[in-house]
Amino acid sequence: MSHDTENRQYEQRRVEKVVEVINNKEENLEARSAGLKQSVVELRKTFWDDVTVNLEEMDDIIETQESIKQQAAILSQKEQFHGKISAEIQTLQRLRNAPYFGRFDFIEEPGTEKESLYIGIASLMDQDEEDFLVYDWRAPISSLYYDFSPGPAHYQTLDSTISGEMTLKRQFIIKQGVIEGMFDTGITIGDELLQQALGNNASTSMKNIVATIQKEQNKIIRNERSKLLIVQGVAGSGKTSAALQRIAYLMYRYREELHADNIVLFSPNPLFSSYISNVLPELGETNVRQMTFLDYLKNGIGGNLTIESPFEQMEYVLTQTESEHYPIRMKNMDYLSTIDFMQLIDAFTSDLNGSGIQFKPIKFRGRTLIDQGQIGEYFYSLDKEIAIPNKMEMVSKWLLQELSKYQQQEIAEDWVMEQIELLDKEDYMRAYQRAEEKMQSSTVQDEEKILRRYMVKRFFQPLKKRVKQFAFVNILATYQQLFTEWNTKELPNNWQDIRAQIATDLSQKFLTWENATPYLYFKGRLLGDSADRSVRQLIIDEAQDYSAFQFAYIKHLFPYTRMTLLGDVNQAIYTHVAKENPLIPVEHVESHERITLTKSYRSTKQIVDFTTYFAPGHEPIEPFNREGSKPELINLQNENEWMTTVLTCVEEQLKKGNETIALICKTLEESEQIYHLLQDKLPIHLVNEETYTFEKGVLVLPIYLAKGIEFDAVIIPDASADHYSLESDKSLFYTACTRAMHALTILCRQEISPFIKLVPKELYDVKE
Ligand SMILES: Nc1ncnc2c1ncn2[C@@H]1O[C@H](COP(=O)(O)OP(=O)(O)OP(=O)(O)O)[C@@H](O)[C@H]1O
């Protein structure tokens, strides 16, 4: 028998033994779980039997409460225990199919015995709970697997560095308990395994990469030192993957203190959010709080303003070039994205400490109780040294006191009795009961008084709530003054133009995307920020799309939160934000650690080689060695053939077995046109801002919604020069082309884009 066969048989026997342990453990746990479940059900049923209820004397009441508490504690303990057992069972079930994916042999010190360690998605102890049969991929020792090839190796524990020698590194593909592939590996983690993983068809949801994490990705995943970790990585280099495995790692490493609620992930769009939503559960972790920055802003700004989405802004930039206001809007975008503008808001706010804040009158049943003048007078009578948000607190307290006085006065008014009479029976009974509770020996007059009091209180409650939320401050009107009346020496050159357009938008209660963050920042300067202190880790994917202002705001909101920013300057499609972006190394980005990823895993070597020529950045891009066919350029001679050619391209890709085929357009406008032209000819789905999930098949979508996602085949329906020629189009074109895993087809209806001309001819096939 050959050595290889012997090895394989040995490993297969081991897998079977491990699966046996898994089965035994699961059986035991199931039995315990069933017992526990039964006892929880019984306990719930008989809860009151074991509680001594006696409410006669104070002592008895206390005793009764204690008894209830005790009983509830027993129940909750049992329920928690049951939950823990269920989680353990789920872990075992996940392990059963493929208990591990890797093995390495390690000799800690010369002369000591070699240890074989097996790595999987969770730890597994043997039947006696003494030795590890499988180590969790996140355990300190498992980092050896990702960081070293056979030879000297070391890893970090909590308090020391352990060195030794790795004598073997082996990878497995195990399915349903059977070893389907086994490779002893050298320098990189399993070219073979990675080839297999990347060669598969694209999926509509992202997969975890724990079996094939690369050394440079592992640095991101296990980084614990940095308060601010910045990752610049070319398209397809595994930034999102690294971010998600990093979250799983942090949740494991800080299991006691870090919960899913303490981690927030900002993602670029809802489609992307659902695309990545399976990764953490697959790894046995709960999904963290995921939102788009737009959702975050909408939440903070509230409902009375219309907020433009970044996609609408993008669509405007790309389609409204002929509009009269376009040049000014572009200036706005530039200026409102800068730290200078943030400083301008600070200067304005500090002037507001002297005068200028607009208030809203407090009205009750159509009558003004306290007008804005009175509120302003009170506010400006307070000490200037006190910060504005603190003064707002004081105004709110004062208003609540004033309202209480009005509340008293209203009790005797006629409308109160009318309202009492209007109460339906249930409400009336409730009001009456309350009235009765409040008085022991009531007279008829007392009773009416209490009912009146109840009714007035009920009417004043929403008003008081709004006062507590500072609804008496007219944020919008105050902010508008920045663009109408306010003057200072430090205004930018083209301020007159900028401010007129913004003032018009604000008067229509419309916030452009570039103005949404400044508005919320300003609101915070007046009312105080409502930052969520429970956020301990903030992960921002596609970080190149955030402006300097937005970053500064995020840092201002989460001053003590650890942050991981991941992005790619090559894909900075919102060009006005590219300046002062922290992904570009500049002096003023405070102390941080940077990791650069240059290897691209998503696309075939042929696609990466092609796209490298028009990548806007200057970093090297290295393809992972996976072969495919060259990108194809179809240069149409006859415009009329355009749609039939697109159709033929789609059909060809389907024939080749590609399951997700994306027609990626520059804008939504273009996507809609193509959708309408093709919808009768083949099953095709249009993806827009509201698309939350996608199916396999043929999709048509704009570039900005394809961000972060990948497809088997990408077809660019029109890459003529009139679509892609400006410097700002380069990152759009790069982003579109780099979504392709296996095939890229580019059509040109007219003169071909100059970006394609940058690529040496031998790197693509041309069809006329
Ligand atoms: N170590 C790895 N093992 C297996 N697959 C990997 C690995 N790294 C990356 N990939 C795969 O490469 C593809 C791209 O990864 P990912 O989406 O994380 O990259 P990205 O840098 O966020 O890309 P982009 O910026 O272009 O959106 C995915 O299919 C991912 O599963």
UniProtKB/TrEMBL annotation:
Pfam families in the record: UvrD-helicase, UvrD_C_2
Gene3D superfamilies reported for this sequence: P-loop containing nucleotide triphosphate hydrolases (3.40.50.300)
GO molecular function terms noted in the UniProt entry: 3'-5' DNA helicase activity; ATP binding; DNA binding; hydrolase activity
InterPro entries: DNA_helicase_UvrD/REP, HelD_bacillota, P-loop_NTPase, UvrD-like_ATP-bd, UvrD-like_helicase_C
Domain of life the protein comes from: Bacteria
Keywords: ATP-binding, Helicase, Hydrolase, Nucleotide-binding
Gene Ontology annotations for the cellular component aspect, listed alphabetically: cytosol
Residues engaged in binding ATP: G233, V234, A235, G236, S237, G238, K239, T240
Domain UvrD-like helicase ATP-binding as annotated: residue spans: 212-604
GO biological process, one term: recombinational repair
NCBIfam families (alphabetical): HelD_BACSU
Protein name: UvrD-like helicase ATP-binding domain-containing protein
Organism: Oceanobacillus profundus
